[in-house]
Amino acid sequence: MKNDIKDISLAETGAQRIAWAAQDMPVLRTVREQFIKDQPLKGHRLAACLHVTAETANLMIALKAGGAEVALCASNPLYTQDDVAASLVKDHGISVFAIKGEDHDTFFKHLEAVIATKPDLTMDDGADLVSTIHAKHPDLLANLNGGTEETTTGVIRLRAMAKDGALKMPVVAVNDAKTKNMFDNRYGTGQSTLDGIIRATDVLLAGKTFVVAGYGWCGKGLAMRARGMGANVIVTEIDAVKALEAAMDGFRVMQMTDAAAIGDIFCTVTGDTNVITVEHFKKMRDGAMVANSGHFDVEVDIKGLASSASSVRKGVRNFVDEYTLDGKRIYVLAEGRLVNLAAADGHPASVMDMSFSTQGLACVWMAQNDLAPEVYDVPGETEDTVAMLKLASMNITIDTLTPAQQKYLSSWQEGT
Ligand code: ADE
């Protein structure tokens, strides 16, 4: 099997979408042009498990232009853009195994299909590819130069594997790069999550009490943007330093049990499980809306809600289910899955530009270096390159250190 997609005849719309995203990905365009000249991935087979979007398509096209043989599957069954998948297959000769809404078995069959290409490089969003290779195809590990990981949840899993001595291949934590999380996690999640909530519900944010669970980069972006739309924002957090930061950023900080009683809209962005539970649902007011923008659909206990609810009305609007609990209605968006990708288009191309350029360059770094099985940071030069290219695309020039400043910064003798 070389591909498994919904419908090849969707390719034309997919091509338009890919071209639209490309306009806002100038850094990736420069990386691709360099890849065409240098062919740094020639002879490499890359398996990617990412959200199949127009932005991802541009990354796949760049990697192929750099000489790699590429196979792509979805990192979540719900978020594939079928027209984009069709264009990748038809117009770019890239193997894609992804169909929006695919069931659990098909999702894993597709994961196996990209693994069957016997990759020497992997690219993950959530670490399903790397963990499946470790669990079911350990024979491939010897041939793996390494992998890259896109998201916080994936990096948490990989670090847990490394801590247990279970990680048998090198992986770059692209998520932890400044050129990724300061922009994609913060501004990408901030904007696209609100976009998903608004598209799903048409809710007015001004004057609403908006509860953000988690104050990592994603939570910060979401809290900032919700405040910008006029919401009264409450932050819940388990990390003392982050909670303090949220308080000093001007947000009300409290426990979820207290926030539950006063929030109008709730959104989890923690990367952890059972953040909103039945105990919290029971305290919510009639008409409360609950969404998630963390990678896995484990942050909101929807099974618990379903079993406690007296009635459930699915699809009262697209991506909105109504649960009645103790006589009060609670609206769950996108079944607790990533609301920004389910109900909107994910992060805008302009931030994915930096994340995916970092991905592409990190992938080349893995291919060119013989590394021990550990979790690595993105090399500092790669971050600088991506940031400088993005600034140039925005027509921004910055100062450089004079020799005297350089000397001052590297000396310790000068003081008071
Ligand atoms: N994750 C969040 N937004 C995304 C996008 N637009 N493409 C790929 N992965 C994403």
UniProtKB/TrEMBL annotation:
Gene3D superfamilies: Adenosylhomocysteinase-like, NAD(P)-binding Rossmann-like Domain. Residues 185-346 form the S-adenosyl-L-homocysteine hydrolase NAD binding domain. It is an enzyme of class 3 (hydrolase). PROSITE patterns: ADOHCYASE_2. GO terms for biological process: L-homocysteine biosynthetic process; one-carbon metabolic process; S-adenosylmethionine cycle. Pathway: Amino-acid biosynthesis; L-homocysteine biosynthesis; L-homocysteine from S-adenosyl-L-homocysteine: step 1/1. Substrate binds at T53, D125, E150, K180, D184. It holds the Pfam family AdoHcyase. Its EC number is 3.13.2.1. Its cofactor is NAD(+). Binds 1 NAD(+) per subunit. Belongs to the adenosylhomocysteinase family. HAMAP family: AdoHcyase. This is Adenosylhomocysteinase. It comes from Candidatus Kaiserbacteria bacterium CG10_big_fil_rev_8_21_14_0_10_56_12. The lineage of its organism: Bacteria, Candidatus Kaiseribacteriota.
